[in-house]
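Problem 12. The chain below contains 229 residues. Write out its predicted structure in token notation.
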Amino acid sequence: MKLGSSANLAVLSDTPAATKEKEEKKTLGPEAHEQRDLFVRAQRRKLSDERKSVTHKFSVGSHEGYLIVGMYEDGVPGEVFIKMSKEGSTLSGFMDGLAISISIGLQYGVPLKTLVDKLTNTRFEPSGFTQNPEIRYASSVLDYIARWLGGRFISLDYLKRGTATSVGEVVTPLRGTPAADAANVQSDQVGDRMAETAGAPSCPTCGMLMSPNGSCFKCMNCGGTSGCS
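Solution.
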């Protein structure tokens, strides 16, 4: 009986399925081990229980928010909190997720400059003029946050806007030239858009700024209205 059992086990171990499983284990074994070692070497640098922080109030269009940056002992940012709109809204949840992603990245060693460069010049609503004299216009909330973080912790160059021909140089189009005429037209369009949406409420569904639609307002992002059909 023992010999028969051993023979049966030998036959089962030589089946194509068993052979394939052994080959997969041999193939995946070293890669999985290397991946585990990679995560072990990545050390998360957490902030102390008591840390210095800076709170910045901002406004993009008609949307206000607060940006809170926690810092290490050497003044390097290590966490970010962004509070905007009502709790439970799409905009508030998006900002919470963004703040968590930036904080985790900073604590695992991702350079702040890399994050700032990726978020700068992103374009979506809400956008518009701000109350910050150093950042007069932001193409999105992410654009404003990235430029403020860059100007506060990296370089003042992040606060500047325009066509740069070299580091720190901003070119203003001459009056009467096609470039100046195009810039004036774009400025007028932005001004008309801001005047149109002035006083418009935020969408209760997604938190975006609504646009006039007859006698009420309509959200151009999700299609929600303020009561009109």
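Discussion. The helical segments are 2-13, 16-41, 90-107, 112-119, 141-153, 178-197. Students who got a different answer should revisit the alignment rule from Section 12.3.
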